[in-house]
Amino acid sequence: MVTSSAPGKVYLFGEHAVVYGEPAVPCAIERRAHVTVEQRESGMSVHADDLTLDGFTVEYDAETGGRPDVEVADSLVEAGVGYVNEAIEQARDAADAGDVGFDITVESSIPLGAGLGSSAAVVVATIDAATRELGVELAPVDIAQRAYEVEYAVQDGEASRADTFCSAMGGAVRVEGDDCRTIAAPDLPFVIGYDGGAGDTGALVAGVRKLREDYGFAADTVEAIGDIVRQGETALAEGDLAELGRLMNFNHGLLEALGVSSRSLDAMVWAARDADALGAKLTGAGGGGCIVALDRTPETKTALEFTPGCEEAFRAELDTEGVRQESR
Ligand code: MEV
User: Fold this and answer.
1) Among 163, 195, 295, 319, which one carries the catalytic annotation?
2) I need a surface site. Which of 75, 114, 133, 306 has the fewest CB within 10 A?
3) Residue 163 falls in the annotated catalytic set
4) Going residue by residue through the chain (328 aa), what tens digit of pLDDT does each one get?
5) How distant, in Å, are the alpha carbons of 14, 44, 196, 239, 250 from that of 151?
């Protein structure tokens, strides 16, 4: 029996535009998915709990195709099951292990579908734990590659390498097409606001694709996000937090123009700005879920706690460690 963990992430800059070859800078945060894997003769069962900040329990048997008894959207449950199944396929392939079975337990403090990279973290940790259980140790970059293939398959080809590379490697990373690298980052005072909801990543990515095809402004907006990311990289290298915050505000405005924000995300962004955060933006696919703000003071967290529509506000430290084995 092996337990591995992998971190969630926030996007400092560049979600959505990264799908079209622009650069993005996601940062791993100290909220992890833990996956425990035990080999069995055949078939597969998956137990999951604490998949939202409130917590709930999912029990299903992947063999029977039964739906877990949880109060979340079907699309999220189906996606969750799809990610675990594909991750196990990758582990079997890496270990040349045929149809060997597994009992899998997922414990995650990363809310599902909320822009904090829950699926990437679960996939990365599952591949690591399952390959180790089969006696194979993959390098984090190889896990990132296999995890990307999982997201690509489950999201019908609508996935960048950003979430999976960040979760496997930890810290701040820069992703531009197939070029993925870790980059230096100062201590970043992240504050996260969570509206308790989730967006459908596949539908949101498809929506931006259509907008980009139909309207020149949307194609220009995607390019403008790329410009912001490049300027953001300079600010990051110089440790210029005020400039990083300004650029985050611009990035949120452009994501709003692409139609991926929501009333609650905008309300949380404005609450953070009114509390004098250095900057704030939605993180991830959007449609609902989380915003990320930069603020060293307690003001933004307090303001978010009093914002209607914000279910939870918390600080998140940059997690410099990516995937790791927890126990065996
Ligand atoms: C989702 O977390 C981030 C998107 O850019 C999609 C992707 O990069 O795969 C919206």
Assistant:
1) 163
2) 306
3) yes
4) 999 999 999 999 999 999 999 999 999 999 999 999 999 988 888 887 655 433 333 444 444 445 554 445 555 566 667 888 899 999 999 999 988 999 999 888 888 888 899 989 999 999 999 999 999 999 999 999 999 999 999 888 778 999 999 999 999 999 999 999 999 999 999 999 999 988 888 889 999 999 999 999 999 999 999 999 999 999 999 999 999 999 999 999 999 999 999 999 999 999 999 999 999 999 999 999 999 999 999 999 999 999 999 999 999 989 999 999 999 9
5) 18, 20, 23, 32, 28
Q: Which atom of ligand 1 is nearest to the CA of 14?
A: 5
2-184: CATH architecture: 2-Layer Sandwich (3.30)
Work out the number of other CB atoms within 10 angstroms of the CB of residue 207.
Answer: 18
Domain boundaries, the chain: 2-184, 190-315
Q: How far is the CA of 307 from the centre of ligand 1 (A)?
A: 26
